[in-house]
Amino acid sequence: MFQSLDFPGGRVAFTSDMSFIAESSEKRVKCYRVLDDNGHPMSSRFEQVSKEVAVKMYSSMVTLQIMDTIFYEAQRQGRLSFYLTSNGEEAINIASAAALSPDDVVLPQYREPGVLLWRGFTMQEFANQCFGNKADYGKGRQMPIHYGSNKHNYFTVSSPIATQLPQAVGAAYSLKMDRRDACVVTYFGDGGSSEGDFHASLNFAAVMEAPVVFICRNNGWAISTPTSEQFRSDGIVVKGQAYGVRSIRVDGNDALAVYGAIHAAREMAIREQRPILVEALTYRVGHHSTSDDSTKYRPADEIQHWKISRNPVARFRKWIERNGWLNDEDESELRGNVRKQLLHAIQVAERTEKPPLGDLFADVYDHLPSNLQEQERLLRETIEKHPQDYPDGVPV
Amino acid sequence: MASIFQAVGAAAALSSSNSFDSKKFYLSSRKSVSERKGSIFVVRSDGRMSSGRVDKLVTNAVATKADSAAASTASKPGHELLLFEALREGLEEEMDRDPRVCVMGEDVGHYGGSYKVTKGLAPKYGDLRVLDTPIAENSFTGMAIGAAMTGLRPIVEGMNMGFLLLAFNQISNNCGMLHYTSGGQFTIPVVIRGPGGVGRQLGAEHSQRLESYFQSIPGIQMVACSTPYNAKGLMKAAIRSENPVILFEHVLLYNLKERIPDEEYICNLEEAEMVRPGEHITILTYSRMRYHVMQAAKTLVNKGYDPEVIDIRSLKPFDLHTIGNSVKKTHRVLIVEECMRTGGIGASLTAAITENFHDYLDAPIVCLSSQDVPTPYAGTLEEFTIVQPAQIVTAVEQLCQQ
């Protein structure tokens, strides 16, 4: 005696018991994990990774760490105006990138340079962007860490939070129209999930059956706002079902778990033409950026704990080492090389000329319109008349 | 009115060689006022002149009565249609021409669009190319930007321009900026269009004039259509442009009827349209106010004045070439707009003209705009907020006395 009502949206069974759905389940959604804290696999069922890929993953994670340290120091020394690190999130960065194909289109938030690193962006290219010199692909127009490279399928970082999410749906829509064997992958943080664009994007992606993988780096902090003040749901993973999006929660500090989950998510997104939501739990070890001092709002020993005992790079290292794929010598050689390369890249970037004046006006439109031509002419005249009031070293 | 007629295949590039040569035009059109009234001059690219009939000046500029002399349409060249059909024709031609062109917005698909601009397109091109979106303007605008960066050429329809205020973040921070901040790596050839302006008692939230808010955003172009001819031409040009273009339509102009050419044509995005050449005063206007100006022009002519009426069409950038030539000739400027007084298109146009043509002005520029009030619902009050032909006549008389 199945009794149901047909309202717009489909049949729904009815009941005489008035009961409200609880605001949260008793048990939180479980977190997918492969390696324990000591780098031991907890089960034998996980996505295997070859030695080659594993070693590349590890060296990329180390490179990312060193890059962050040195660029951060450079900012502190006044050589860079700004920087933000991915400390603590190396596994999310690298392992997710490793699970993608180069044809997958990436729309980052700003804490994912590791994806670009994996795809072959060089130290020099990173440094050029940070120093805003004429070799920068962005032609010196954006703040440091706002990387972008169309040949690496990595869309230019745009500061406003979550604006990349609906754009990701649009990019997926484009791939869907062309029936490409590729998906879109977009990243955002726990804070970003509060923006309107997040909700609309998940909704759109589900309705449009768009092949997007939404990766949330839930690192516990949005500048000084902890997740307890950002939302009251069980993290971000539960929001997936609200929009009709398949989702999973994964240990973001476990490189193998991230790799496996993203690989699976990607397959589903393309094969089934649907969006997938992946919440990677992690911790933001560094400050939000060089404009922040997080010891003001969180205890220093909490930071230390995550930096040392819960370090994703160290954990992955233990697994690789145990497989005999890496030893101490390799490690120190790697670290030494990366450091040297980076310092050299910074020196070169610092010495490279800044973009010429014409780049101030180019690319606003496809061709220079008359009003901008006029404005450029006026600027050049002014600089010629008062050269002492303008910075030298900028080619005119 | 004279328009630039672009042959098929000619690039619609931003170059001054395509701009309207006003001197050439004036020498060959010494017709009397009464002969000139009610004719279109179409200046073809080879310099020949031809004329066709256009509808008489309209009162209230809502729907146009059919041309009384249009008994047999078979003998006349071109075809008659309404403005919203002209928009659709332009859109359809471009969708046929380039498979990357797609449309997204609320109710654009099977419903055919709130103003029927996309009617019939979804059955023809499919659900994916004419995409119905959920209600989230910022997000579907963002979606269009992402699609554009991946190689498509999307057209975003705002059901009402006012709703695009919700899309301001994507339009300002991303649409206008990403080509620049990516160092030219990603292009955003989107068209954002929709009806705006004051309608018939639609209330304040549905009577917005967004061109004043958007005009500051670097990286975008803005155009406003006012006739079926330029609606189709501007739609096509906007779609073909590599830059993001915002095309402003007006709620009350969708049912305007006009005979347009059968042959393909595009209008230049950066050009103003000479509606009525004259000697005494330059009247600059756009969109619906063009019709109030032309109605006032009728009265002014009867009183012995010879106003030059220019539909500026390009709101960003302004066509200072055409405007400047006019100012140099008449030495008096009246701007008639629907924007609010503060921060409107008229305000920046006044600044631009003063800066560039100050020496040619015999009198201060006068700008007639709506008051700085939300548009009331009551019909009578609503009418008081819009510049009426009588005000325009008075303003011209005053300006010409100085």
From TrEMBL, chain A:
The UniProt record lists the keyword Transit peptide: yes
Coiled coil: none
Protein origin, superkingdom: Eukaryota
EC number annotated for this UniProt entry: 1.2.4.4
Homology family: Belongs to the BCKDHA family.
UniProt GO molecular function: branched-chain 2-oxo acid dehydrogenase activity; metal ion binding
Subcellular compartments: Mitochondrion matrix
GO CC entries: mitochondrial matrix
Gene Ontology biological process terms in this record: branched-chain amino acid catabolic process
Species classification: Eukaryota, Viridiplantae, Streptophyta, Embryophyta, Tracheophyta
Protein name from the UniProt record: 3-methyl-2-oxobutanoate dehydrogenase (2-methylpropanoyl-transferring)
Catalyzed reactions: N(6)-[(R)-lipoyl]-L-lysyl-[protein] + 3-methyl-2-oxobutanoate + H(+) = N(6)-[(R)-S(8)-2-methylpropanoyldihydrolipoyl]-L-lysyl-[protein] + CO2
Requisite cofactors: thiamine diphosphate
Alphabetically ordered keywords of this record: Metal-binding, Mitochondrion, Oxidoreductase, Potassium, Transit peptide
Keyword Mitochondrion belongs to the record: yes
Residue span, Dehydrogenase E1 component domain: 59-355
Gene3D superfamilies linked to this entry: 3.40.50.970
Species annotation: Escallonia herrerae
Quaternary structure, from the entry: Heterotetramer of alpha and beta chains.
From TrEMBL, chain B:
Residue ranges of coiled coil: none
Main localization, broad class: plastid
EC number: 1.2.4.1
Cellular component, GO annotation: chloroplast
Keywords per UniProt: Chloroplast, Metal-binding, Oxidoreductase, Plastid, Potassium, Pyruvate, Thiamine pyrophosphate, Transit peptide
InterPro entries, per the entry: THDP-binding, Transketo_C/PFOR_II, Transketolase-like_Pyr-bd, Transketolase_C
Statement: the UniProt record of this protein carries the keyword Cell wall biogenesis/degradation: no
Cofactor(s) needed by this chain: thiamine diphosphate
Subcellular localization(s) per the UniProt record: Plastid, Chloroplast
Residue ranges of the TM segments: none
Quaternary structure (record): Tetramer of 2 alpha and 2 beta subunits.
Functional summary from the UniProt entry: The pyruvate dehydrogenase complex catalyzes the overall conversion of pyruvate to acetyl-CoA and CO(2). It contains multiple copies of three enzymatic components: pyruvate dehydrogenase (E1), dihydrolipoamide acetyltransferase (E2) and lipoamide dehydrogenase (E3).
Protein name per the record: pyruvate dehydrogenase (acetyl-transferring)
Species assigned in the record: Escallonia herrerae
